[in-house]
Amino acid sequence: MQVEMLKYAQEADAGESLPGITALIRDHLCPHVLDIDIKGEYPGEFLHRLGAIGGFGAMVVPQFGGTGKGLKNAVRVIEDVSRECVSTGFLVWAQNACAWYLQNSSNIAIRNSVLPQIAGGKVLGGTGQSNAMKACVAIEENRLKAVRVNGGYCVNGTLPWVSNIGADHYFHVGIDVAGEPGLMIALVRGDCPGLTLSQNAHFIAMEGTNTFACQFKDVFIADAAVVSHPSEFERFRTRTKSAFILMQMGMGLGLVDACVSMMKRSNKTHGHVNRFLDDQAEDVEAALLGARAACYRLADKIDASPDTGYERDTIALRLLGSELSLKAANSAMLHLGAKGYLVSNAAQRRMREAYFVAIVTPAIKHLRKELHDIDSGCRVCSA
């Protein structure tokens, strides 16, 4: 295991996840992090620039405008961005998740037309799957309902929060269709008739993520906008779920890495007293190296055999990522002490970001419920 950890650590340090990403983050993200966090600035320009160098193409084959570098590369890109700003790392995940669903669609027209725009960052988009994922494991009821009509579906309902969207953005949603056993996955544009986007909340973190409540009132979803039909849902879910969730590890890995760096810097002047804290920099760093190695290894497995699922392994690792994020951010805040209370200090921001990593779907309680259901053999339902 130590040899494997060293191998993946060396791989992460061997070079950039993408050519030019270090300079891009330094020049076009770092100067905006405080405004993203405090003023709610949406980093749209950075996202477009990141897309242009391949930041959203790892899970998309070159035929549809991607780089085809695979899941591990997608995680590394999100990790690199999240090392500076988890809000922006979350948006990078959302864009990649949008591309990943379209890549696996049976709708060749969507893959030919919209997918290259998403993969290249020319058009931005998100994923409205939080409610659907929770509905699939009986945490809550699916909020979007559809009935079949001529040429498509009529959809009603409200999703409370969907991120990385806007009038000119795309996002996909999971919808209950009357009389059908599986969910329909549909691609929606923010300005489609009958859809209302409302920014009706303010957040202690993630304020710059373009997060909207989405009200569907007799929204027509044409057959041409269907990503996956209800009859395809089981296979689609098996093929997409693990990568969808594992990509979120990039947020946690980047955050923990940043926290370790803060702790080490603090120890240069306050190591004589920081040594009395429960979680030390070297211990958190060792846990980070282990989590990173496990994540990269699992990503390679999922790439090699996407239809296998690896669902339990992914859920367990994602849970570890949440728990480690909370531990690392708490320790970094304690290491920094009073300095961490400053609005401009990263320590308090990292605490807030860590709670997001732990609460964003699938949240810690969601992940533990799924592990319980799997291990007890009482899987609820698939739709």
Report on the structure:
The protein has 383 residues and is an alpha+beta fold. It folds into three domains: 123 residues, Acyl-CoA dehydrogenase/oxidase, N-terminal domain (Butyryl-Coa Dehydrogenase, subunit A, domain 1, Orthogonal Bundle); 105 residues, Beta Barrel (Butyryl-CoA Dehydrogenase, subunit A, domain 2); 142 residues, Butyryl-CoA Dehydrogenase, subunit A, domain 3 (Up-down Bundle), CATH 1.20.140.10. It is built from 15 helices and eight strands. Strands 1, 2, 3, 4, 5, 6, 7 and 8 form an eight-stranded mixed β-sheet that branches. Helix 5 crosses helix 11 and helix 13 packs antiparallel against helix 14. The chain is globular, with a radius of gyration of 20 Å. 51% of the residues are buried. The mean pLDDT is 95. GO terms for molecular function: acyl-CoA dehydrogenase activity; flavin adenine dinucleotide binding. Its cofactor is FAD. Belongs to the acyl-CoA dehydrogenase family.
What does the largest sheet look like? 8 strands, mixed
Instruction: Report the total helices.
Output: 15
Tally the beta strands: 8
Residue-averaged pLDDT, rounded? 95
Query: How many structural units, i.e. domains?
Result: 3
Query: Beta-sheet strand percentage?
Result: 5-15%
The fourth-level CATH homologous superfamily of the largest domain is: Butyryl-CoA Dehydrogenase, subunit A, domain 3
Helix/strand class: alpha+beta
Integer-rounded radius of gyration: 20 Å
Q: What is the CATH architecture assignment of the largest domain?
A: Up-down Bundle
Per the CATH scheme, the topology name of the largest domain is: Butyryl-CoA Dehydrogenase, subunit A, domain 3
Low-pLDDT parts are none
Order of helices and strands: HHHHHHHHEHEEEEEEEHHHHHH
